[in-house]
Predict the structure.
Amino acid sequence: MFFDTHCHLNFQIFDNDVSQVVNQAIGVGVKNIIIPGTDILTSKKSITIAQKFTGVYAAIGIHPHHIFEMFINKQNQDKDIFFQLERLVKKEKVVAVGEIGLDRHYYQKTKYDDYQINKEFINLQKKFFISQLKLAYNYKKSLIIHNRQAKDDLLTILKIYKKLLLPKKVVFHCCESDEELLDFAVKNKIFIGMDGDVFYDEKKQEFVKKIPLKSLVLETDAPFLSPVKKFPNQPKNLIMIAEKIAQIKKITLEKIAEKTTFNGKILFGLPPF
């Protein structure tokens, strides 16, 4: 049994074949899937999809990249956004707030014109990140944390708001190969998500050797980060990721499956096997 702890079945690429994609995943042993939201629309879609399938669950949140929409509109949308998130977090099968966090990366493909990383935009990201940390804490939901090229800012906030991090209820999604992040994660009982880039990223291959099995969960981040560099990635490919990590860590696939599934269920507060 395997657990894909991060899979965007709510993205448009899967609109016409969600059932087929889920059934193919189940067919190879991926029995649980978490669908993270990245904005209000995809958060709503994650709930709708999760409610149709056994073993599939939703997360809701605003990805830092999409906070740019509020930044360019220069309008005070905070209250409306948080009102909608608070309504969604109470819905059936919502187990987490995410994916949320900080992002300083310049994306080659984005729907936003004149995308820019500046102090004002990063401050807005921080504001929304902290507010969503509080939302998760208030409703005792797990956290899916996104970080891209913003480690120092991220760790500063997490250290200040450490009381909002429920033990074993937080994951560093697609964690960067950074020992400071790993050290913080292990000390604070935060899980580390590993994806298909472990196939072709040599730094990730070295990094995964250092991750304690007790801290490891598996992700596809579908439709992205395909282990075979073929778009779109699918949750059925989680098996390939598990096999690669088993090979790198020199343990059995069965052990990887057992432990990472157990970790995933602890992370999202789901019943054991």
